[in-house]
């Protein structure tokens, strides 16, 4: 039973919002492009494994995608977690391509792709650390004794894995996505005794959902950006000109005369992703280049946002992560097009 769906994480959404709001000449940034590539590639790899997992008859499992939990003032993130009454499985998903060479002596993995070598933290150490962290988190929730297994799942079937030292841990921990179902069946055969009852299982489920804290990057601070880097007002999604002007119940582009009654929605969602999770009427007017307090009030209320406060003190709150559009337009004409 799927308990927590995977949506685009804030990392991907924030970078896409950044591309939409940056002026054209600032989009072609190698560091920005590479960071976005890393996040979107990882997300697509996770989706690949999600599909493989969806073919498994998982009525005896609770499945959680993209969990981020806190223990002892530190956060740890789990790509996918499978919870049953008998055991738990942690999946660390890697969408690495090319050739991977594992060195157990150095506790390190080297990727060779397109004749370029790149080193990574040992993913086996990563999942073993997650086992310890999750066990500590469960104990803090008064859950003891449930076995925890972990796997590193390589989502790309063309990736070549090399374990030149024949480390047995590598063979037991690192698998291709195509082998995931058979590995789950192995664990099912290994663990046959119920460790927690239905009531405790529901308690763990509630604690996981309540304890999840999504990571939200501050990309403006990360790239040292200011107001001069950003588009002002509402950009025309037909010709790219800005700002559009607010006419009667619609937005109008003075360059191409294109009209769109909901052109404010995407920019306001991008505001929440890039700036802060609340917006006031005054901030909305400045951001959308509006003169009318009433127009700003109407537009904000049309989005069915939750709000707190009254009159000038009213703050409209960002939607939940899952409610952000998943397939929004991302401009790429002025930036390097990367092979995703």
TrEMBL record:
**Which Pfam family, any one of them, does this sequence belong to?**
NERD
Start and end residues of each NERD domain? 41-157
- Superkingdom of origin: Bacteria
Q: What is this protein called?
A: NERD nuclease
- Organism annotation: Oceanobacillus arenosus
